[in-house]
Amino acid sequence: MANPILQINKEPIDSIIEVIGWIGLVLLIGLPAYYYGQLPDLIPSHFNFSGKVDATSGKGSIWVLPIIGIGLFALLSRMKKIPHKFNYLQKITEANAADQYKIATRSIRLLNAIVIWFLAYIVYSAIQTALGNQAGMNVYISSCFVVLILVCAVYPLFKKF
Q1: Number of domains in the chain
Q2: Is 129 helix (H, G, I), strand (E, B) or coil?
Q3: Per residue in 52-61, pLDDT tens?
Q4: What is the signed CA dihedral for 140, 146, 149, 151, rounded to 10 degrees?
Q5: Residue 1 located in a structural domain
Q6: d(CA 11, CA 2)
Q7: Quick one: pLDDT at residue 4?
Q8: 7 inside domain
Q9: Which sign, positive or negative, has the C-alpha torsion 135, 136, 137, 139?
Q10: Could you tell me the residue range of the domain that residue 74 belongs to?
């Protein structure tokens, strides 16, 4: 039996999370657009776990993460519209569907915003390192993003119990 199809109304916090995600997407695209002309021919294309540059590429590679980010943002934005197709830990019924769908869609919104901001931070770090304004990526900030992404994975479980 298929899960019930419901229209889930957004709460104000959901709208705030979406706006934060859109701002991150604008930065993810805007940063390389603004700085592209100033970039040297070779820019950082990979950072190791210590935040140091361990690979470089041509400056056109600065567009790889924005392109991935746009695709991911679109995919996750589409996914949050079809919560009835997600897999859940419990059986979805008419009685619990609205709550479960709200938790799932909020988790997707959070994940979308956090991943986009993380990609924007990586692009920012690559640009600033290429311009000589910083010496790699801040490990503590990167670690915070990873923890936040893990929190998004645990959030639905926490809300369930």
Answers
A1: 1
A2: helix
A3: 999 999 999 9
A4: -70
A5: no
A6: 26
A7: 85
A8: no
A9: negative
A10: 12-160
